[in-house]
Design a protein that fits this description.
It comes from Simplicispira metamorpha. It is built from one helix and 15 strands; from the N terminus they run H-E-E-E-E-E-E-E-E-E-E-E-E-E-E-E. It is mainly beta. The protein has a single domain, classed as Beta Barrel (Porin), CATH 2.40.160.20. The two termini are 43 Å apart.
Length: 197
Amino acid sequence: MKKHAIAAAVLGSVLCASAFAQQAEEGSWMVRARAVHLDSSNGDSTGLGLSINDKWLPEFDVTYFYNKNLAVELILTVPQKQTLSSNGAAIGSFKHLPPTLTLQYHFDAQGFKPYVGAGINYTRLSAVHLPAGVTVDRNSFGPALQVGVDIPVAKNLYLNFDVKKVYIRTDVSAAGAKIGRFKVDPMLVGVGLGWRF
C-alpha cells in the first residue's frame, strides 16, 4: 500500500512539474486564424424590413497575455461585402470593416483553456450602394462580448472555438431625414487554430 502511495505521489509531482514547465514555456503572445459565421439579428426600426445576408468570413486575431489569466485581444478581418435587402428583395450593398478589441479572463483548467471577454467594436461602412436619396451612417461604435476555449493539440498549438456578440448599428436616412436605425448586431461563431509564442 505504501509503495502505491509513494508511486502516486511521485507521479503527481512529475505531472505537476510538467504542467508548470509547460506553463513557463508559454509565451506572452498568441495569434489565431478562424473561420467565422456571421449571423445578423437584422433589427430594423425604419419600416423598410431591412436585412443583410449571413455569411462565412475569415478572421485573424492577436492576443497579448499580461499574465496566465488576463489578456487583451485585437480581432481583425478584411472588409466584408454584404447585400442589403428590404422585405427580402435586394436593394443595395456595402462593405464593413469591424475591428474589435476585448479584455479577456482565461480560467485555470486541466486539458483546455476557457475564457470570457468584453470590449469595444468599431465598424466602418464603405462602398455603400443604396437607392437614390437613401444614406446610412458610415461609423458604428458598440460593445462586444465573447466566450471561447483553447484546446491544446500540440506544443504551443491550440484548437480554438469562439463565440462573440457584437453590437453594430447605423442610422438610416431618406432625403436627408432620419427614418430609423438598422441593427446588424451579429452573432459570430468561429473555429480555428492558435499559436502561442
